[in-house]
Write a structure and sequence with these properties.
This protein is about 5% helix and about 40% strand. It is mostly beta strands and about 900 residues long. The chain folds into four domains: about 30-70 and about 830-910, Rossmann fold, CATH 3.40.50; about 145-305 and about 420-485, no CATH class; about 310-395, no CATH class; about 490-740, no CATH class. The strands form 15 sheets. Strands 11, 12, 13, 14, 17, 18, 21, 30 and 31 form a nine-stranded antiparallel β-sheet that branches. The longest helix has 16 residues, at about 55-70. The radius of gyration is 36 Å and the shape is elongated. The relative contact order is 0.18.
Length: about 900
């Protein structure tokens, strides 16, 4: 766990957190410990060297579970010691202390889930209703259609029919975040206790965005077309919304009460609370539009609603001392009644009782009273006019903030604090008919921005770490572009070898009966991967085998020959017969216009259409058909190209770049090799094939590769060094002698994080701002704060006038005590410095292990089960504690059985 005390307080120069007691927090599987009390993993996860990929997945899942539990709970304590003093011109005084807070940044597995939600989208894909489809599906699947607002998946801007509300943005392709994803959006019940009514409030966040590689930014960037926040209200028994008036003036006329007539029926006089951007606000005023509507199904835009936060509130009797508001008081002088109209007579007085201003206010509206440049927002809920003895009073509040949401205008239109956020307000008519056409029920409020370029530093797109505030004031939530997800990368290099002592390379090829020696004529291409067994060549004719796998291979782009064989065709591939030895090699003769190498790092289909395949093709081969190997791209040296500068060989790599609905989508990286005049010195990867585009043909460009994206937002064409593919692979560099990539071993995802302003947008990290005595729970761990920091207020002295007052901070320090004065129970992550997963060949008998896979593919499992009664035919899923504290077998009869066994094992582990 990472704890960052960013600010201890205005009077504290620094502080140190010390650990106090440590709680037991081990992890075990029945009687076998997996993680000790200090959070240290005690076992290795063993997978067979010859195991299938599914065993590796099972082992990875188990290792991930152990790594996520590798932490201990630790209690931290803190206490502020010492009292600040004042030095005044006429004597010593005291300092007022207030606003005690601490900012904690906590890193623990899953911590960010409490304060954030992450959208994971494919690179080059749309962020819409159906993620991971790369635009393959119809708008009806990827969007929220206009129609009834009553259905669960209704569009936030719908008019209840077939279109958006007038003046609202027209967006159907949207992604929705609801309360099940982001807890501050949870649906709540809105109670109007005065009227005995209740409503349901639903909150959602909506966005439409996409990602692509920005060449000028040199990273994957994220344009955001729209970001919106919606409130939607429904009645206890209907889908209409919050009524302006809770009692109809006549039958179903719920809009005919006013601040001067029947004000008691106004919802704005009932202290009705709603949730708004993660905080509790009061409905302070409602004003429907005058649109004529005859159907309860129609949602009509217009009008406004005001929301407010109280600074202080309560019932004031005439003549009471009033509300203290800073340097003044708000006093209720009297109640004025004229027929059905009643008003509160209000004075603003200073500390000495001098009246600074008088005004009057009606119920259900907010009165702004400005004195000496300061505006006080006075809201009167109820007024008792004093018709009976002692009954002159007013239920009032002083608002610290009030915000007006007017349809079609920016949020709080009288101010510039939210000038890039606009509002759509939708209303319904309860009891609508030919005789009741007046809108009266607040159905929906949507805050949205389509001018996102004005809210981020890099106009038009978000770079990693940048965010859009929601809204600008107050900023309680934000949408951050967090960049790409973390994946492992390979290092893939195509290297042109030009010379050796004898200008050729001797390789050994094992024939069916006798080895022979083969020479590769320089220059030739060496292809290397950092991953073991990365490449597979099928169709080799030597050694009595048709397949070989290794981490490297050679492409003889000129000539090669063997001492017992004829001259091989240029383009033939040589690959070691064994993934662990270079003693013997297999070759595959070039034929049919191309040859292929499987590269499973970038795809499990291992085909040009499905990803995981490399293709090498000779440009002037009459059997070569561009469409078969490079999609629709034609790299043929046809008429109109500069004959002196041409591509001799084309190398292409197809990557799997899809999942979910876009499982079969691929992107392609293609580059050429020019042999020049045929000498060793002028062959190069780095050249311009032509100086201009001729006849619509494609061409290669210096320091670029040709890129074909999988997604709808990438650009086909020459891509410069540093480009990321839709899979997440980085094209690193091209020079005369090499082309280098760092291929992503798994799909990388572009991540958008919706978080509270106090939560980190970094995975597994959350920031909490707590006041004295508060506690919070993060991932099952309680954090409690007491006396962490202090804010020093003004000094006061007993004698003298206008004293010179200075705070003395020398006696104030923030320390962590060994006793439980202030508590902070936290999770401390154990640093794992070595891999938890090992191969069976690397395991030793002294290791405590979870061995994955059956005895046929895992030698550790085989030894562990010797003499046991395990029968995989009778019991296909096996999770067995073979030796207590030493060996646990997790295996299955089939791949699916092994994955199920891993799932059962993970479910059974427990913390002490």
């Amino acid at each position: 766990m990472k704890i960052n005390l960013r600010k201890i307080g205005a009077i504290v120069a620094g502080a140190t957190i010390l650990a106090s007691s440590v709680a037991i927090a081990g992890l075990s599987y029945y009687n076998t410990p997996l993680v000790n009390d200090n959070g240290q993993p005690l076992v290795k996860v063993v997978v067979g060297e010859k195991a299938a990929a599914s065993d590796g997945v099972a082992a990875a899942n188990i290792a991930a579970k152990i790594a996520n539990e590798a932490y201990k709970t630790q209690k931290l304590t803190a206490q502020v010691k010492g009292d600040p003093t004042c030095t005044a011109g006429t004597g010593a005084g005291t300092c007022a202390v207030s606003d005690k807070k601490v900012t904690l940044e906590i890193t623990a597995p899953g911590a960010a889930a409490e304060g954030s939600y992450t959208i994971s989208s494919l690179i080059g894909d749309d962020v819409d209703r159906l993620l991971l489809d790369r635009g393959a599906n119809a708008l009806s699947t990827t969007g929220y259609a206009y129609g009834s607002d009553v259905v669960t998946d209704s569009n936030p801007f719908t008019n209840g029919g077939s279109a958006a509300m007038s003046g609202a943005p027209d967006y159907v392709k949207l992604y929705r975040i609801d309360g099940s994803m982001f807890s501050p959006l949870a649906a709540t019940t809105v109670d109007d206790t005065y009227a005995g009514k209740s409503y349901k409030e639903e909150q959602n966040v909506w966005t439409n965005a996409y990602t692509y590689y920005g060449s000028s930014d040199e990273q994957i960037v994220a344009p955001v077309n729209i970001l919106a926040y919606s409130l939607k209200f429904k009645g206890a028994t209907d889908d209409l919304g919050v009524q302006k008036c809770t009692t109809p003036a006549n039958s179903t006329f719920y809009a005919y009460c006013t601040p001067t007539t029947d004000s008691d029926y106004l919802t704005s006089t009932h202290k009705v609370q709603i949730q708004f951007l993660g905080e509790t606000w009061y409905i302070s005023e409602m004003s429907p539009p005058s649109t004529s509507v005859t159907s309860e199904l129609t949602v009509s835009p217009g009008g406004y609603v005001k929301l407010a936060k109280e600074s202080t509130s309560g019932i004031l009797n005439v003549g009471d001392s009033g509300f203290d508001v800073g340097d003044v008081k708000i006093v209720l002088d009297d109640i004025e009644a004229h027929g059905d109209t009643t008003s509160a007579i209000i004075s603003v007085v200073d500390k000495n009782g001098a009246v600074l201003k008088k005004d009057k206010a009606n119920a259900g509206v907010t009165k702004d009273i400005t004195v000496d440049g300061v505006t006080y927002k006075v809201h009167v809920y109820k007024i008792a006019p004093g018709y009976t003895f002692g009954a002159k009073w007013a239920d009032m509040a002083i608002y610290s903030k009030e915000i007006q949401l007017t349809d079609g205008q920016k949020v709080d239109p009288d101010y510039d604090t939210n000038k890039y956020w606009k509002v759509t307000v939708g209303w319904k008519n309860k009891g609508a008919s030919s005789t009741d056409t007046v809108l009266d029920s607040l159905r929906t409020v949507v805050l949205y921005t389509t001018t996102t370029e004005s809210l981020i530093p890099n106009a038009g797109t978000m770079r990693k770490g940048e965010f859009i505030p929601m809204i600008q004031d107050p900023v309680n939530w934000k949408m951050t572009y967090a960049g790409l997800s973390t994946v492992d990368y390979d290092s893939l290099t195509f290297r042109l070898l030009r010379s050796s002592d004898r200008n050729n390379l001797h390789t050994y090829v094992q024939s069916a009966s006798l080895p022979e020696y083969c020479n590769l004529t320089f220059p030739y291409v060496q292809v290397n991967s950092e991953k073991d067994s990365a490449f597979t060549v099928d169709g080799g004719t030597m050694a009595g085998t048709t397949s070989a796998t290794a981490s490297k291979f050679y492409v003889a782009v000129t000539n090669s020959s063997c001492n017992t064989s004829s001259l091989l065709t240029p383009g033939s591939i040589f690959i070691p017969l064994s993934s662990t030895s270079d003693d013997y090699w297999v070759y595959k003769n070039y034929s049919g216009g191309q040859t292929t190498v499987k590269y499973d790092t970038v795809g499990d289909s291992q085909s040009w259409a499905g990803g995981g395949l490399m293709t090498i093709a000779k440009m002037n081969d009459t059997n070569y058909t561009a469409g078969n190997y490079y999609g629709v791209i034609n790299f043929t040296n046809a008429a109109g190209f500069d004959a002196s500068i041409k591509t001799d060989w084309v190398f292409g790599m197809s990557e799997k770049a899809g999942s979910g609905e876009s499982y079969s989508y691929t992107d392609k990286l293609i580059f050429g090799l020019d042999l020049g005049t045929g000498t060793m010195t002028d062959a190069t990867f780095n050249y311009d094939e032509i100086t201009t585009t001729v006849g619509g043909k494609q061409y290669f460009k210096k320091d670029y590769v040709w890129y074909i994206p999988a997604g709808p937002h990438g650009s086909t064409g020459a891509s410069k060094e540093g480009t990321y593919s839709d899979r997440g692979t980085k094209y690193v560099t091209t020079d005369d002698e090499q082309v280098k990539f760092t291929p992503a071993k798994a799909l990388a995802y572009a991540q958008f994080v919706l978080s509270t302003s106090g939560a980190s947008s970094t995975p597994d990290t959350i920031t909490k701002i707590l006041t004295e005595g508060q506690d919070t729970t993060v991932n099952g761990v309680k954090v409690k704060v007491k006396e962490i920091s202090e804010k020093v207020g003004a000094c006061s002295v007993g004698t003298g006038s206008a004293p010179s007052c200075t705070v003395d901070k020398t006696g104030v320090t923030a320390t962590i005590m060994p006793d439980d004065v202030a508590e902070l129970d936290a999770a401390v992550v154990y640093p794992i410095t070595s891999s938890l997963v090992i191969l069976d060949k690397d395991a030793v008998d002294t290791d405590a292990v979870v061995t994955v896979g059956g005895p046929v593919v895992n030698t550790v499992t085989k030894v562990a089960l010797e003499g046991s009664s395990v029968d995989f035919t009778a019991t296909p899923v096996v999770v067995k504690e073979v030796t207590v504290g030493k060996k646990i077998v997790v295996a299955g009869l089939t791949a699916a059985d092994t994955l199920e066994a891993a799932k059962e094992f993970i479910a059974a582990v427990k913390r002490a």
